[in-house]
Amino acid sequence: MPVQLVLDLFASPPVEPSADRPGVALDRGGAPIPTGYAVFDCETTGTDTTHDEIVSLALIQLDRDGGETERTTRLVRPTREIPAEATAVHGISAADVADAPFFSDIASELRARLGDSVFVAHNVGFDLPLLQRAFERAGIEYAPDATACTLEAFRLLEPLADNHRLQSICERRDITLEGAHEALSDVLATAELLRVVLAEDIAPETIELDTSAYMRLRSRGDTRPASEPQIRRLFGMARSAGLRLADGSVDRNGVVALAERVAGTTDVDSLTRAQVQDVYDALEELIEQQAALGLAASG
Q1: Count of other CB atoms within 10 angstroms of residue 42
Q2: How many CB atoms lie under 10 A from the CB of residue 282?
Q3: For the segment 76-95, what is each residue's pLDDT rounded down to a tens digit?
Q4: Residues 186 and 177: beta-carbon distance below 8 Å
Q5: Measured between alpha carbons, how far is 170 from 190 in angstroms, rounded to an integer?
Q6: Alpha-carbon separation of residue 168 from 23, 31, 64, 154 (angstroms)
Q7: How far is CA 152 from CA 121, 123, 155, 156, in A?
Q8: Is the pLDDT of residue 32 over 50?
Q9: From CA 35, how far away is CA 57, in angstroms rounded?
Q10: What's the burial of 235, exposed, middle or buried (CB within 10 Å: 0-12/13-18/19+)?
Q11: Is this prediction's pTM over 0.90?
Q12: pLDDT score at 253
């Protein structure tokens, strides 16, 4: 039975997010015991998970308590050129992979090594889709029953830290990271971060980061001006919340009125980072109300 289904059926419900922990997780005793953890990292031709390809990968297999059982490293020859800007990041050039196998040549072996372990990466939202796409091109399906993301784990554990880059977390936790942006070095560091989470008695595969709560917590009391993307997001949310004119454009007057009510200012473009999060919260409530009205009307 898939791990997530077991969690849904039998695990005790996680506690609600606290004021200083923006998300939820089960302790290890309250979650099903995994067969193990497959910690993965890769270097690529770029950051587009749909089209870019793996040029180097590292996989460390851990038992349920974080003990290493096996490791795999591979250079991989992509079917496309490695851009100079990618080589500048990880140092891998076309000459380095000229004699390396294509991903399709090692796909079956790699899939077998992944098994039914919990898939772990420092940014699962990038590594997993990119790996799945590589498997798909090789005619193999890979959909792990459970995943764990050390990036989200440390955003949960250390929400107010300056940043959550792999190197920064390692420095804070006295973990050695030699050769950042080198697959084996990065995966060894990620495995160490996973062990930190396990030592906190947290089942890493059950972590659910509340992104909105995380951003609110980080923005609390932040008087810096909201960024341009944050203001754009505000107006996008306003459209979704129904603050629209007859021609479909955003009702700016409605947004201004909301900002005045929530943040005490009519100058929407000069909201602080703390204020913009308060307006986001109000817009999310309006969006939920719109959805509820839609359901009532359809019923």
Answers
A1: 24
A2: 17
A3: 999 999 999 999 999 999 99
A4: yes
A5: 9
A6: 21, 29, 26, 11
A7: 10, 8, 5, 6
A8: yes
A9: 22
A10: middle
A11: no
A12: 95
Q: What's phi and psi for 252, nearest 5 deg?
A: -65, -35
Per-residue confidence (pLDDT) for residue 13, from 0 to 100: 43
Query: Which residue type does 116 have?
Result: D
| Phi, psi torsion values for 133, nearest 5 degrees | -65, -40
In angstroms, the CA 133 to CA 53 distance is: 9
The H-assigned helical ranges of 79-145 are 84-90, 103-114, 124-137
- DSSP state, residue 214: H
The three-class DSSP label of residue 121 is: strand
DSSP 225-289: BPPHHHHHHHHHHHHHTT-B-TTSSB-HHHHHHHHHHHHS-S-GGG-BHHHHHHHHHHHHHHHHH
Domain annotation for the chain: domains and CATH numbers:
3-212 (3.30.420.10), 221-298 (no CATH)
Distance, in Å, from the CA atom of 103 to the CA atom of 142, rounded to the nearest integer, reads: 14
